[in-house]
Amino acid sequence: ENGQKEDSIIQNDLSESFEEEVRAFLSDEEKLHLFDDLTKVNPVTTTTVLKCLQARYTVNLFYTNAGCSLVALNPFQPISCLYSPELMREYHVALRPQDLKPHIFAVAEQTYRNVQSQLDPVNQSIIVSGESGAGKTWTSRCLMKFYASVAASVISPKGNETVERIEKRVLDSNPVMEAFGNACTLRNNNSSRFGKYIQLQLDRFHHLSSASIQTFLLEKTRVAYQAPNERNFHIFYQITKGATAEERLEWNLPEGADYRWLPNSERNLDEDCFEVTRDAMFHLGIDCSTQNNIFKVRYK
Ligand SMILES: Nc1ncnc2c1ncn2[C@@H]1O[C@H](COP(=O)(O)OP(=O)(O)OP(=O)(O)O)[C@@H](O)[C@H]1O
Ligand SMILES: [Mg+2]
């Protein structure tokens, strides 16, 4: 019994001294935003980690390392210069990109260098995960833009059109995938209702040569059923809002008609951008007549 009592006294002392450490760490509020790597936080508790991230957020620092992982916070507003071509270049030419401020470009560049530094071809994967609205789609777009820029194929003096178009095509896959697979939900106006595995292939000069995208778990039931205050896939709003009078006739979409599959269409979102989707489809090689067939609404 005495032994147990002593154990519990020691436990209490330990937990008190631990709490004291946590308090001492948090008391230096001015310094919390300086922790650019969460492995340097001591003691590591949910509170200390979250307080550091919060302190960084308030001074517009949205990226923090956690060892070899990167924690990205969603700023929920455009941050000027955070994704500029100049910054991409800075990370690309840096002697040690990991020594620069934590950023998605540091991860992108390190991954690119890992591919380059091997004699035999080696694959690298970047896993982007997080809850709905965390910024996964945004981050994937940033990564693709980065590679489209730094691994751009060298354009031959005569201007080899096929090679020139690859980077653009890779980027154009995003608006198309999002138009057909994303929808406005309660958590995210542009919520991806599917998972995707994007593979970017490089040639032996480490230039982008091709890409493939596999999708999985597309939430097809959303076409027929949407929860209250949620919307169907963006494409339906894009065609009904963006079609010309002629196209409406051809696609069986009379003006002013009420569609059961088009809830909450009075809301106009940035995502209702038919032209962007159409342009991207053209660049991907989907011609006018194929597009027509896709957009035509068939009643059966
Ligand atoms: N780094 C960022 N800078 C500015 N805005 C951002 C950033 N990351 C995310 N956002 C904003 O947050 C919104 C939601 O992000 P995103 O669509 O990438 O989330 P997600 O993780 O893909 O969610 P879901 O799982 O629902 O698809 C974006 O449409 C954008 O407005
Ligand atoms: Mg998404």
Instruction: Quickly count the helices.
Output: 10
Taking the alpha carbons of the first and last residues, their distance comes to 79 Å
Q: How would a textbook summarize the main sheet?
A: 2 strands, antiparallel
Order of strands in the sheet with most strands: 1-2
Could you say which small molecules are bound to this protein?
adenosine-5'-triphosphate, magnesium ion
Mean pLDDT: 92
User: How large is the share of residues in beta strands?
Assistant: 5-15%
Radius of gyration: 25 Å
Task: Tell me, briefly, the overall form.
Answer: globular
What letter string, H or E per element, gives the SSE order?
A: HHEEHHHHEEEEHHHH
Output the structural class: mainly alpha
Oligomer: single chain
Count all strands and give the number. Answer: 6
Considering DSSP H and I runs of 4 or more, what fraction of the residues is helical?
A: 40-55%
* Low-pLDDT ranges: none
Description of the structure:
- This protein is mostly helical and 300 residues long.
- It has a domain of 61 residues.
- The protein contains 10 helices and 6 strands, in the order H-H-E-E-H-H-H-H-E-E-E-E-H-H-H-H.
- The strands form 3 sheets. The protein has a two-stranded antiparallel sheet. A two-stranded antiparallel sheet has the order 3-4.
- Helix 4 crosses helix 5, helix 6 crosses helix 7 and helix 6 crosses helix 9.
- The longest helix is centred in the N-terminal third of the chain and has 26 residues.
- The chain is globular.
- The model has no long low-confidence stretch (mean pLDDT 92).
- Bound molecules: adenosine-5'-triphosphate and magnesium ion (MG).
- The site of adenosine-5'-triphosphate (ATP) has 17 residues, from helix 5 and strand 4.
